Every structure is written in structure tokens, then in C-alpha cells.
Amino acid sequence: MNAAAAVLCGLGTWLPPQAVTNDDLARELDTSDDWIRSRTGIGTRFVAAPTVATSDLAVEAGRRALKSAGRDAVDGVVLATTTPDRPCPATAPLVAARLGLGTVAAFDVGAVCTGFLYALATGAGLIAAGTAGSVLVIGADTYSRILDPVDRSTRAIFGDGAGAVVLRSGGATEPGALGSAVLGSDGTGSELITVRSGGSREPLHTSGTDTGTGGPADPYFRMAGKAVFRGAVERMADAALTAARRAGWTTDDIDRLVAHQANLRILHAVADRMRLPRHRCPVHLDQVGNTAAASIPLALAHAVATGTLAPGHRTVLTAFGGGLTWGACTLRWPALTPA
Ligand code: UT7
């Protein structure tokens, strides 16, 4: 018996209401609209209110994805996030319960900015294995909670948000059927994107700031921007080309490359490395910044809303993030209405 394909049949997104412009940041930090736009392409990002956690964003996006799919039930929830509500337990069971999905399988996936693609591949695997007939895959992050308030290089980039898709069991040739995912990692680069303290290596004890490992605790997200930039371009481009090849597509066949929205210069460099016309690579980061695990579903919804992504488009998704991790996957874009 052939394994069932996972077919993308619903898409929903959610952004918190508070927009933070580059000028807003420039009032607080030594930065400028000109620097941020010219170095990243970002104009605005959204920030969750202090009382709002990742599960709140995930529930909103999940509810909309279910609506878009015309479903009120699924067999599993896979949530990609680097910013769970708490270190323990996972956030997905809470999201499943709040969505009224009952006692379904629910767990988190941690692959930083590649998280959505890892979660998508995991959801597809649950379907192929017969464990689930349908899965809600969510990418949700609240980076505003882990950014150092005085670090202009990360605060300029990241924003909060959530996006979700519904996968259902179907045939491999249907619109929306996911091709086999390309996934990779390189843990030798784990220091390049990190929240150093607060895990088992350097616990954050409630009583003080010293972790007992010889230095003060650092609970904030840190990124070695330049090294990450180079890795992102090479890994996203190469993973995208491998995924396309597996689907039997040449570069010319790729109608849309929906890449993790980290930096406009990265998007252009990825397209150039693949010899893909830049206009086939939709841009959303100008409006929302880098939303980590949420960036691909948010970019998909925006591309559909603006008419950039249409049913039948041979679409490649690709991402790169902390770990280091990267991935890509293909699908023919299905007819659906994002919610
Ligand atoms: O989502 C996961 C994957 N993430 C990424 O792919 C992000 C990849 N990296 C990047 O997007 C870029 O490396 C950044 C946007 C983070 C930084 O851009 P860059 O062109 O690589 O700048 P840089 O880090 O080399 O910094 C150049 C200068 C530095 O000043 P000095 O040391 O030359 O005096 C920074 O302090 O720019 C400074 N700088 C800023 N200046 C004004 C860094 N951030 C800012 C800022 N405003 N917001």
C-alpha cells in the first residue's frame, strides 16, 4: 500500500495588533529607519502585549487555519516555536485544548526559524504513517520576550506572529500535496544563534544571575548576524534546489520560492544563487520583520492576498535557522482562502 500524501488544505495567520516602526525603535535605540531598511528591508514588526503568550498567537492562527480548511477537528497538533509559554510542558497540548480539539496528539518542535518546515515534515510523517488523518501545523513565536532590550541588531529584525496550516491525508498528485521534505542540521554552529542561559547547561536559578559556569547568566537571544547570513543563503538555496529536483522540477519550473523572511538581502542572494528571477520570491518581511517559525505561513498568506501566489503555482518553501537547521519542501499551491 502506498503511504498517504499530506495535502495542505487550510491556512490561517495572526499578528498581534501593536505595530512597531523603525522610527519607533530609533527613538529608543541607536538606529535609524534608513539603516534598518537598507540593511534588512524591514519597515515594521508587530509586538505582543505583555499579557499575550505564544499559545495565544498560536490559538488565533490555528482557529483561522481550521476555518480556512472548513474543519472543526484534526487528529494532531504540531507546534513549531522557540518561545513556548513555559519550558515545561510543551505548548501544543494547551493550544489543542483551547481550540476544542479534544485529546489529540500534540507536541512542540524546536528548530528555531526552520521550525515550521520541520513541523510540516513531522505532520506529513504522521499522516504517511497512518497515525493521523489530519494535522494542524502551527508556527508561532513571541521573540519580543527573548530579545535584549538594548540589542539593536536583533530588535530591528524580529517580530511576533503566528501562522498555521491544516494537512489532510490525500493523493500525491493532488494540488497541495507536499513533496518529500529536505531537512538538515549542523550543530557545530549551535553558538551562532542561541539563548545561552535557562536550559540544563546553564540553568537560570531563581535566586541570582550567576549560572555557576563562570559568567553571568544571559537569558537573551543572541545571533552572529554575518556568519548566519552566509549560511542562510547557501543552505536555503541548496535545500530548495534539492527539493525541486526531487519533485522533478528545474529552476525554471519554480513559480514561487517562499523563503523564511529573515532579511531582504538574503532573499535576493538566495534567488541569485539559484538563478531564479527575484520577483518569484515573495517578500513580506517589510511589513512584519522576521517572525521566526511563523514567517513561512505568514508569507504564504500575504502572497495569496496580494495575488503573488495563485493555485497551480509550483511552490518551494525553504528556511534556515538556529541549530543550525535548514529545510525545504515543494507543493503545487492549492485553491484555498486563507483566514
Ligand atoms: O532567522 C534566522 C536567520 N537569521 C538571519 O538570517 C539573519 C542574518 N543576518 C542578518 O540579517 C544581518 O547580518 C543583520 C541584519 C543582523 C546585520 O546586518 P550586517 O550588514 O551583517 O551588519 P553587521 O552585523 O556586520 O553590523 C555592521 C554594523 C555594526 O557596527 P560596527 O561594529 O561596524 O560599528 C553594527 O553594530 O552595523 C551595526 N548595526 C546597526 N546599526 C544601526 C547592527 N544593527 C544595527 C541597527 N542600527 N539596527
Features of this protein?
339 residues; alpha/beta; Peroxisomal Thiolase, Chain A, domain 1; 2 domains; 10 helices; binds oxa(dethia)-CoA
Write a compact overview of the structure shown.
The protein is an alpha/beta fold. The protein has helices spanning 22-28, 33-40, 54-69, 92-98, 115-128, 152-155, 225-246, 264-274, 285-288, 295-305; strands spanning 5-14, 18-21, 44-47, 76-80, 105-109, 134-141, 161-170, 182-185, 193-195, 221-223, 256-259, 314-321, 325-332.
Low-confidence segments: none
Rg over CA atoms, rounded to whole Å, is 19 Å
| Principal-axes shape call | globular
CATH class of the largest domain: Alpha Beta
Treating each run of at least 4 consecutive H or I residues as one helix, how many helices?
10
Beta percentage is 15-25%
Cross-sheet strand order for the largest sheet:
1-7-6-4-5
- Fill in the CATH topology of the largest domain: Peroxisomal Thiolase, Chain A, domain 1
The total domain count is 2
Main beta-sheet strand count, sense and barrel state: 5 strands, mixed
Identify every distinct bound molecule in the structure, by name, code or SMILES. oxa(dethia)-CoA
